Amino acid sequence: xxxxxxxxxxxxxxxxxxxxxxxxxxxxxxxxxxxxxxxxxxxxxxxxxxxxxxxxxxxxxxxxxxxxxxxxxxxxxxxxxxxxxxxxxxxxxxxxxxxxxxxxxxxxxxxxxxxxxxxxxxxxxxxxxxxxxxxxxxxxxxxxxxxxxxxxxxxxxxxxxxxxxxxxxxxxxxxxxxxxxxxxxxxxxxxxxxxxxxxxxxxxxxxxxxxxxxxxxxxxxxxxxxxxxxxxxxxxxxxxxxxxxxxxxxxxxxxxxxxxxxxxxxxxxxxxxxxxxxxxxxxxxxxxxxxxxxxxxxxxxxxxxxxxxxxxxxxxxxxxxxxxxxxxxxxxxxxxxxxxxxxxxxxxxxxxxxxxxxxxxxxxxxxxxxxxxxxxxxxxxxxxxxxxxxxxxxxxxxxxxxxxxxxxxxxxxxxxxxxxxxxxxxxxxxxxxxxxxxxxxxxxxxxxxxxxxxxxxxxxxxxxxxxxxxxxxxxxxxxxxxxxxxxxxxxxxxxxxxxxxxxxxxxxxxxxxxxxxxxxxxxxxxxxxxxxxxxxxxxxxxxxxxxx
Length: 548
Known about the structure:
InterPro entries: MFS (IPR011701), MFS_dom (IPR020846), MFS_sugar_transport-like (IPR005828), MFS_trans_sf (IPR036259), Orgcat_transp/SVOP (IPR004749), SVOP-like_MFS_dom (IPR047969). This is Synaptic vesicle 2-related protein. The protein has 22 helices and 4 strands. By secondary structure, it is mainly alpha-helical.
């Protein structure tokens, strides 16, 4: 008996913490203390020495049992074959989204000529897509939080595919207006692919992977312009609409391979399904699963709008809404403005001659020429250096400063357009401006899923995406209608909006660089997984027997 009690006293000191807190401090790691998470036990319990002959408490019966959370498993399994497949599939969704957006700047001047539409109807054709996206973004986010990321994504993709193909057969303006609005309603759910994608990524790879996914957006925009070059002169806009739906068709077929997010399954109480998903990923990656039992986080209400306005997130939510609004307002404004400026010839003729403005903005047909398509292609190619620049600076400057820098550079390029410049300089300035505003958009897509907890992550991204669509909804009336009155005023609006967005980025209260995804909304932000993965490349687990 004496020997048994001696051995019992040599066991590591056991600490308790509430379920859901998986991170160990560096002091704990250094001292060799081990942590075991036990459901329902209060934190801060002290070590207890047993009297001679006393029974071992039930909660101490097996102090070496391992437990782990989904975050621990994702970090332990790492980045591998599964994430590569998921990257390609998520990229297809983004490519399809980009093509549906890019087609607006090509379709508008074509229908303006073919159906003799006034400028306000051309602008409305663009805006109705964003009305659909704005009205559905929060809905898709709520569906993804309530019923699963995969469910919301599949429904939105199938919806977009169906109405995208139908719009190619629209006989008159009113039909295409309604059908493109329904396409926009479906596109509002595509950003949820980022939520699903981010929840399967290890912390170190998350920013780089989400940014590299944006390469598919750039590929989509370039592919759409290249497709238009070949299809529009011979087959017309209907075939362009039909062929632009092909990436969505491929994604719709392949998305049934997608697993549901293990983080979502755990939060909704489906432990077995989450464990099966993690084992599947570990098998595909050829990596070992963490030993022990998967802990089920405390179930929370999911997809509640009020959770975005708790004291911890209220200021963040409001600032992010304005940042996303400014991003989409400026990005899509620049896309539309590029077409308008190229058709006009150069900024000098627009800014110094009222006659040139009238000629450009009249009902006289001006189809996009081959030169217009090539210049449009060059400015679209700026998306690629935009990705590379953002990729290089986002983990050096942090998310907030990266967004602020991108907004400032875009504003500067917009102001330089006030100067009387030729077509070559015009193309260069538009190239740089688009590179940085797309970079700001990418940084926002990295930051937003990182800052919200699992219970509201999809809703947070959805509402931000909805605010972006408000900006995109308004921008055609600036880039196409206000431009008739004053090119200076239009450029000043975009420049001023982005300067305010740069300030908003600096005032965001949370920097997510080097932080893990938050699981629970009931604690201070960043309490879990702070600095995780920064101390070694070994298997990361949060409990006894783990190693850093």
